[in-house]
């Protein structure tokens, strides 16, 4: 199959100008003294980690964050030279690779710090680390809440004093900073209070950090007091949620498909698996080459509409693995080859996420590797990524 044929099936347009717009919007919000960490884990939320990171480096981004050593290596092999932080776990036996690729590692417990220290000594290097503090996410991090405060602070101090570790940063993660309910706002405020109490206690013992960070996308929108030395926007960077929209940010990804076939169906015709849709009249039905294997959630069956320049085209029947049917009866302008938008600039991903009772992160991350990415700048295609063909 030729590249042009693949691209006219289903594709995602990644607007690098929108990425730059969002980056600068955040920069204006945080001010010139606060550093910017771009979260590019999970293939930059499905947008393409290397391409997004290259653009962020060009824009002046201070740090990048990924989830794993494999993701960090992908950036290095893609030519990314700036600081990269692994937010998740790396087995200590891979410390030599962290040193080789000049990667910063999160340390979330004293036992892990000891293992990294020993491995770094054996490899003959010093590992740059950021300490993770659990202030209420209850996932990774040194326990410091309630009765664990004193022991937690002491454990962090001991970890920072270990040989061959360079404790460059310390951070925590808010669990509900994107919520405006009073109880969630109180919880976020308490998380920040605990974090700053940890910082104060460590400072009294002589331990300070060049980089203190805790502000994610929700905090970027609501809690300027949490910006500290560095912020780390995730979904806001990609313009994918309501907070990003409220801050004037734009969707970076637009997922598109096109009409491959049009059929005229008689009244009483049942459509797709499970016979969940039956035509009430004569209908003009388009078949689109996009399905749940491309990342179009089956739960949107019979619920969402595709955006077309002529108007909405409601989905008819269940979304299939590779195809979906849509009602074009009132859209005579839409023909075979016409492009449609699944989500993006005209129909936001968070609108579809609300239908599914989920978050827009899930939709953009789900766009599969067989969907080509087209990187646009100045309205022109700058690069094409066909990962399934690599």
Word description of this protein:
The structure is a single chain. The protein is an alpha/beta fold and 390 residues long. 32% of the residues lie in helices and 25% in strands. The protein has 13 helices and 21 strands. The strands form four sheets. Strands 2-3-4-5-6-8-9-10 form an eight-stranded parallel β-barrel. It is elongated. The protein starts with a helix and ends in a 5-residue tail after the last strand. The model has no long low-confidence stretch (mean pLDDT 96).
Key traits:
32% helix, alpha/beta, 390 residues, 25% strand, 8-stranded parallel barrel, 13 helices
Record the SSE blueprint.
Blueprint: H1 3-7, E1 10-15, H2 16-30, E2 35-39, H3 41-45, H4 49-59, E3 63-66, H5 69-77, E4 84-86, H6 95-100, E5 104-107, H7 110-123, E6 127-134, E7 142-143, H8 149-160, E8 165-171, H9 182-204, E9 211-215, H10 217-222, E10 230-231, H11 242-246, E11 253-258, E12 261-265, E13 270-271, E14 277-278, E15 283-288, E16 305-308, E17 311-316, E18 324-327, E19 339-343, H12 349-355, H13 360-366, E20 373-377, E21 380-385
Helix pairs in contact: 2-4, 12-13
